[in-house]
Write a structure and sequence with these properties.
- The complex is a heterodimer of chains A (about 400) and B (about 525).
- With about 400 residues, chain A is mainly beta.
- Chain A is built from two helices and 28 strands.
- Chain A has helices at about 1-15, 375, and strands at about 25-35, 50-55, 60-65, 70-75, 75-90, 90-105, 110-115, 115-120, 125-130, 145-150, 155, 160-165, 185-195, 200-205, 210, 235, 245, 250, 255-260, 260-265, 280-285, 295-300, 305-310, 315-320, 350-355, 355-360, 365, 375-380.
- In chain A, strands 19-16-15-10-9-25-28 form a seven-stranded mixed β-sheet. In chain A, strands 12, 13, 20, 21, 22, 23 and 24 form a seven-stranded antiparallel β-sheet that branches.
- In chain A, a hairpin with a 6-residue loop joins strand 22 and strand 23 (about 305-310).
- Chain B has three helices and 21 strands.
- In chain B, the strands form two sheets. Chain B has an 18-stranded antiparallel beta barrel.
- In chain B, strand 7 and strand 8 form a beta hairpin.
- Classes of the chains: A mainly beta (about 400), B mainly beta (about 525).
C-alpha cells in the first residue's frame, strides 16, 4: 500500500510540474509601402513606427530602416501599428503616415505591409477640445478651438463640425452602414455649420476660433463656478435660438455667431449640440455644396441613421476615447487619425490640447499635426482658451 | 442547483436536529469534550466521509451565536482596518442504524471598514490574478449562508462503506463606496467516497471530488458625475485602467470555476495507535469574462492542488496527536488574444490565441503536536499542551516583462489549555498561546514600463509583501465556561483573543471572538 501511495505522489507531482505553454516573445516586422505617395512628394529616410498592444496598451517604438520596421521581443497579441514621418517640398509640409489596426501578431518573424500616404498638413487644425465637463454634471461649457496652423489666411465660412458615429453609445455594437464603399466615408448624425458667405470670417495665421456649445460665461454663480471657462468671447456657438432646458436654465443667445444645425438624423430635436463627456470623434470639414438633411444612410440591422461625409472633405479629425480599454474599438479611420487619447474621467475638468511643433521667428506657434492624436495631443487641466497666445480674429468685436 | 441546495439543507438539519439513542456517558457536555470529539476523529478530518464508519463522531448538537471583531493595520490592503461579524453556527453528528451523519449550517453577516484595491471578490484574500482594483478606501457588507453534511453508510459486507460529502454556500457582498459593486457568489461541493477495511487494522479509501464556483459582480457608481477609474488587474502589478459608469463603463465580471479531483486514504487503527494518511490531487479552472451578452475573456486561472495530510493518535488513551500537512497550489495565469468581430451578424469577441503570462505558486507545510493529560470520562482532559510549526513559501512570477513576488517564512507556536471542573456540571477552559513568525525573505520586483508610479505598484504590492515578510509575535488567550443545565444540555460562553505585533513597524492586529452557545 505504501508503494501505491508513493506512486500516486510522484504522479501527482509530475502532473503539476509538467511543461506549460509559457509565453515567448516574438520579433515581427512591417514593410512600409510608399506606393500611394504621389509623385513630387519627397519620401522620408525613416519612419517612427509604434506597435501598441490593444489589450495592455503597451507601446513599442522603433525606427524603420530601408522601409522595414522590426519590433523585437514583443508579446504575441493584437496590435495597432502606426508609421509617421514628415517632409517638406515646394513650401508645403507633408505628413506621411499610415497605420494598421488590430493586427494579430502570433508568430516569430511575421511580416505585415503598412501603406503610407502623404497628406498636406491642414491649415485648420483642432487646437484644444474640452468635452469632459465638471461636477456636478455640468457640460454646457464644452468648446472646440480651431487654429490656423499655416502661414496663409484661411476662411472658416461654411465650415462644418460634427462627431462621427460608428457604434452604439456603449460601443457594444459596431455599425455596418448600408452604402457602397463605406470605407470612403465617415458618418454623422448631427452636423453644425458655421455661417458666412465665403469671405466673411477670415482667420489669419496664428489665430484661432472658439466654437462653444454655449457662448456665455459659465463661471457665474447661476451656472457653475467650477467651470474652467468663460466662453462669452467665443466666435461661434452651436445655438440656433434661445431655449429653456428641462432644469430651468435658459440658454441665452449671446454675442457669438450662431451656427446652423444643417443635418439632424437623430429622429428628434435637440436645440444645442452636446457631445459625450467620455470623449468622441471630432471632425471639421468643408462640404462641397449643401448638405442634404434627408435620405439618410441606415446602419444594417438597426434604425440608426446618419449622413455620409466623404473623407476627402475632412480637414481635421481627432479621436478621444473613454479609457484605454476602448483602444480595441477605435472609431475614426486610421487615415484620418491613427491615434487616440483619453482624459482621466468624465467631469474631470480636463481638455486635450495639441502639442507645439515649433515657434517661428515672428512668434507664431506651429502645432504638431501627424494625423495621430496619440502623438499630437496631451491632456490639460484646466482647459485654456487660446492657449499659447493664439490670436483673436479681428472680426470678433465682442470679446472682452 | 436548487435540488442540490435543498438536499444539502435537509440532510444538514437532519444531522443537527436528530435525537439519537446513544450512551449518555459519551455525551458532549462541555467544550473540551467537543474539542476532543472533533480532533480525535481522524476520518472526519479527512476528505473521505465514508471512513467515518470506522471512527464516527460522538453524538452532539451545538448551536451558537458568535460576535467577531478584528482591528488594526497589520493586514493586507484588501482586508479592513476594522472588521466585525455576527455568526450563527449550528452543527451536529449522530449515528443511526449504522449510518454516520454530520451536518452544519452557518450564517455570517459581516462588515468591513477601510478596505482597498478590491471591486471584485467576496473573498478578500483571493489569489486570482484577474480582478478589479480601485483606489478608494471603502467599506464592505457581506453575508453568507453555508451548509453541508457528511454521510457514511453502515459497513456493507462487513468490509466496505460508501460516503458522500456535500456543501453549498451562497454569498453576497456589497462595496459601500464608488466604484461600488454587488457581488453574488455560490460554492457547491460534492465528494462521493468509499472506504474498505483490509483486515483488522488497515483501511483504504478513495474519494472523487467536484466543486463548482461562480461569482458575478457588477461594478457601478451612485455619483454619476464621477466615473472612477479601476485597475483591470492581470497579475503582479500589470493592469489596464477601465472606467466604472458612463456609456462605456465596465460591464459585469463573471468568475466561473470548476474543480475536479480525487484523493486516496490509508489508515492504521490499533488499540494504542491510529494513523490516517490522506493525499489529494485537484485541478481547477476559473474563467473570467466580462459582459455576459458579449463575453470578453479577461483571463483564466488554472490551478493544480496537491495536498497531503497525515494524522496520528498514540499514547495512553490516544492522548497524543501528531499532524503533518503539506499543501501545494500552482496557478497559471492565462491571458487571451482577442479581436472584436464587428460584422453585424457576428458582433462577438474572437479568441485568436492564449498566452500563459503568469504563475502563482504556494507551498505550505504544517507540523502540529498535541498532548492531553488527565483525561476523564464526562470531563475531558485536564491539561492540553501543543506545539505547531508552519512553513509558507509563496513564489509568483509574471513572465514578460519578468516580474516576481516572493515571500517565505516560518511560524512556530506553543499553547497550553487547562480544563477546570468546578463541579460535575461546571467547567472552565482557560488557554494561552504564543508564537513567533520569522521571515526567510521576500521581494517584489515590477519590470513593467507602464503605471510604475501608480498606487498598485507603490502601495498595494509593497503592503502585501510587508505583511507576508514581517517578523511578528503572536499572543492569544481563550476562555470557555460550560454549565450543564440538563441531562444532556450545556450552555457555554466562550471568548478568544489574538494579538499580532510585527517587530519592524508600528502596526498591530487584534482579533476577538465571543460566543454564546448550547451543546445538547
Amino acid at each position: 500500500m505504501k508503494k501505491v501511495i508513493w506512486a500516486c505522489i510522484v504522479v501527482a507531482m509530475a502532473l503539476a510540474s509538467c511543461a506549460k505553454d509559457v509565453v515567448k516573445t516574438i520579433s515581427v516586422s512591417v514593410n512600409i509601402s510608399e506606393a500611394k505617395i504621389e509623385e513630387g512628394v519627397p519620401t522620408p529616410e525613416a519612419y517612427e513606427v509604434v506597435f501598441t498592444n490593444v489589450a495592455t496598451n503597451q507601446a513599442t517604438t522603433v525606427t524603420s530602416e530601408n522601409g522595414v520596421a522590426t519590433a523585437p521581443q514583443i508579446i504575441p497579441g493584437v496590435y495597432n501599428v502606426s508609421a509617421t514621418a514628415s517632409a517638406t517640398a515646394d513650401g508645403f509640409s507633408y505628413n506621411i503616415a499610415g497605420s494598421l489596426s488590430s493586427v494579430n501578431f502570433a508568430t516569430e518573424g511575421q511580416v505585415e505591409t503598412l501603406e503610407v500616404q502623404a497628406v498636406k498638413s491642414s491649415a485648420l487644425v483642432f487646437k484644444e477640445i474640452y468635452f469632459s465637463g465638471v461636477p456636478d454634471y455640468y457640460f454646457r461649457d464644452q468648446f472646440y478651438e480651431v487654429y490656423n496652423n499655416s502661414d496663409q489666411t484661411v476662411y472658416v465660412d461654411k465650415m462644418c463640425i460634427c462627431e462621427s458615429v460608428f457604434a452604439t453609445y456603449d460601443v457594444s455594437q459596431i455599425y455596418s452602414w448600408e452604402i457602397e464603399n463605406p470605407e470612403k466615408y465617415i458618418f454623422a448624425q448631427t452636423i453644425w455649420q458655421l455661417p458666412g458667405n465665403g469671405t466673411e470670417y477670415p482667420v489669419k495665421p496664428g489665430e484661432s476660433i472658439i466654437i462653444a456649445q454655449w457662448g456665455t460665461n459659465h463661471q457665474i454663480a447661476t451656472l457653475n463656478p467650477n467651470s474652467p471657462v468663460d466662453l462669452s468671447g467665443s466666435e461661434f456657438e452651436a445655438i440656433e435660438a434661445e431655449s429653456t432646458l428641462w432644469n430651468g436654465i435658459v440658454i441665452t443667445d449671446g454675442s457669438a455667431k450662431n451656427m446652423a444645425k444643417v443635418v439632424n438624423a437623430l429622429g428628434y430635436d435637440v436645440p444645442q449640440w452636446l457631445t459625450t463627456v467620455s470623449g468622441s470623434r471630432y471632425v471639421i470639414f468643408f462640404p462641397e455644396g449643401e448638405l442634404k438633411n434627408s435620405d439618410f444612410i441606415v446602419a444594417e440591422g438597426t434604425s440608426t441613421q446618419a449622413r455620409e461625409i466623404p473623407m476627402e472633405w475632412v480637414v481635421d479629425a481627432v479621436e478621444a476615447i473613454a479609457d484605454e480599454t476602448c483602444v480595441s474599438k477605435k472609431g475614426l479611420p486610421t487615415v484620418l487619425d491613427s491615434g487616440y487619447i483619453w482624459v482621466s474621467g468624465s467631469y474631470s475638468g480636463e481638455s486635450i490640447s495639441r502639442k507645439i511643433s515649433e515657434t517661428k521667428d515672428d512668434g507664431r506657434v506651429v502645432y504638431q499635426d501627424t494625423n495621430n492624436t496619440t502623438n499630437d495631443f496631451e491632456v490639460q487641466k484646466p482647459p485654456v482658451i487660446r492657449r499659447n497666445n493664439a490670436g483673436v480674429p479681428s472680426w470678433n468685436t465682442w470679446i472682452k | 442547483m436548487k435540488k442540490l441546495t435543498l438536499c444539502t439543507l435537509i440532510l444538514s438539519f437532519c444531522a443537527i436536529s436528530a435525537e439519537a439513542q446513544t450512551d449518555v456517558d459519551s455525551d458532549i457536555v462541555n467544550t473540551a469534550l467537543q474539542q476532543m470529539n472533533v480532533e480525535q476523529t481522524l476520518w472526519f478530518n479527512s476528505t473521505n466521509s465514508a471512513g467515518m464508519v470506522f471512527g464516527p463522531l460522538k453524538r452532539y448538537n451545538t448551536v451558537s451565536l458568535d460576535g467577531e471583531m478584528a482591528k488594526g493595520d497589520f493586514k493586507p490592503s484588501r482586508l479592513g482596518t476594522k472588521e466585525s461579524a455576527v455568526i450563527f453556527n449550528t452543527s451536529g453528528a449522530l449515528q443511526y442504524n449504522g449510518f454516520s451523519l454530520w451536518g452544519y449550517f452557518k450564517f455570517d453577516n459581516n462588515f468591513t471598514e477601510g478596505a482597498k484595491y478590491n471591486v471584485s471578490f467576496y473573498d478578500q484574500q483571493s489569489r486570482n490574478p484577474y480582478s478589479l482594483a480601485d483606489f478608494a478606501v471603502s467599506d464592505w457588507k457581506r453575508q453568507s449562508y453555508d451548509m453541508g453534511f457528511k454521510l457514511a453508510t453502515p459497513l456493507l459486507w462487513d468490509k466496505m462503506s460508501f460516503g458522500i460529502d456535500m456543501s453549498y454556500a451562497s454569498k453576497v457582498g456589497a462595496k459601500q463606496m464608488d466604484p461600488r459593486t454587488e457581488t453574488y457568489r455560490y460554492d457547491a461541493k460534492i465528494r462521493p467516497s468509499a472506504a474498505i477495511s483490509l483486515g483488522r487494522n488497515s483501511r483504504v479509501g478513495m474519494t472523487l471530488s467536484y466543486e463548482r464556483y461562480f461569482e458575478r459582480n457588477d461594478p457601478s457608481v451612485q455619483n454619476y458625475a464621477v466615473n472612477p477609474r479601476v485597475a483591470i488587474m492581470r497579475g503582479l502589478g500589470f493592469y489596464s485602467l477601465g472606467t466604472v459608469g458612463g456609456n462605456t463603463g465596465l460591464e459585469e465580471f463573471l468568475y466561473s470555476g470548476n474543480r475536479y479531483g480525487g484523493s486516496l486514504q490509508y489508515a492504521i487503527d490499533k488499540a494504542d495507535f491510529e494513523m490516517l494518511a490522506d493525499i489529494s490531487f485537484d485541478m481547477e479552472t476559473i474563467d473570467v469574462t466580462q459582459n455576459p451578452t458579449t463575453p470578453q475573456m479577461m483571463g483564466t486561472a488554472s490551478t493544480t492542488y496537491i495536498d497531503a495530510h497525515i494524522q496520528a493518535l498514540f499514547g495512553e488513551q490516544k492522548n497524543q496527536k501528531l499532524s503533518v500537512r503539506f499543501d501545494m497550489s500552482n496557478t497559471d495565469g492565462i491571458e487571451y488574444v482577442q479581436t472584436f468581430n464587428s460584422d453585424p451578424k457576428v458582433q462577438k469577441w474572437i479568441t485568436n490565441s492564449t498566452n500563459t503570462m503568469s504563475n502563482y505558486s504556494l507551498i505550505e507545510a504544517t507540523l502540529a503536536y498535541d498532548i492531553m493529560t488527565g483525561i476523564k470520562a464526562g470531563k475531558g482532559y485536564s491539561w492540553m499542551f501543543g506545539a505547531m510549526a508552519n512553513f509558507r513559501m509563496q513564489s509568483d512570477i509574471y513572465y514578460i516583462p519578468q516580474s516576481i513576488f516572493d515571500a517565505t517564512g516560518a511560524y512556530a507556536e506553543l499553547n497550553a489549555t487547562k480544563n477546570i471542573a468546578f463541579s460535575s456540571k461546571t467547567f472552565l477552559l482557560i488557554g494561552v498561546n504564543g508564537g513567533y513568525r520569522y521571515s526567510l525573505g521576500g521581494q517584489y520586483l515590477y519590470a513593467g514600463t507602464t503605471n510604475v508610479d501608480s498606487d498598485i505598484i507603490k502601495d498595494f504590492y509593497p503592503k502585501e509583501l510587508e505583511c507576508l515578510t514581517a517578523d511578528y509575535v503572536s499572543a492569544g488567550a481563550n476562555v470557555a465556561l460550560s454549565i450543564k443545565t440538563g441531562k444532556r444540555t450545556s450552555l457555554y460562553l466562550k471568548a478568544d483573543g489574538r494579538y499580532l505585533k510585527p517587530m519592524a513597524t508600528d502596526t498591530n492586529r487584534l482579533t476577538v471572538r465571543l460566543s454564546i452557545g448550547c451543546l445538547f
